[in-house]
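Trying the structure run again after the queue cleared.
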Amino acid sequence: MTRYFATRMFRCIDDSSSAAWHHTLRQIMMDFEPGTLGALFLTSAAVGAVLSAADVGTVGIALSFAMEFSDTMASLLRKLSTVESGVQSVERICEYDSAPAESTAGSEPPENWPASGRLEVRDLTAGYRADLPPAIRNVTFSVGPGQRVGVVGERRR
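Done. Tokens:
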């Protein structure tokens, strides 16, 4: 059973690391693409200034504007991405907030419960709904007299 939980823990760590890795790659690409477009814009402004035989002041202002424009666009894209991530987080919070609460009704079991008996489960496969894949597959365990069991996992609908 310990091996199962260790394997599960390592899988969760891998999933978390994978998400962080993809987030970092997305940030790099979001910096690279506007930078590339900015360089092309700056190059085309420089070529246009040279071909038009403009005076030095006009060329300086055009190149300065091109550099500032590309930096502004890259910053705008980063800020829009941050806002989009924030809006998605708020949507998730609203979704969880509107989810019905689980019932807490019932009575506390006696302190010595269970005093006797045994529970054995073999190859249990169960899910939340028929249209979803099983949440647990082929679980086998036994609970002896006097033992307590806690079930922990993510909640799905």
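The longest strand covers residues 119-126. Worth checking whether this holds up in the mutant runs.
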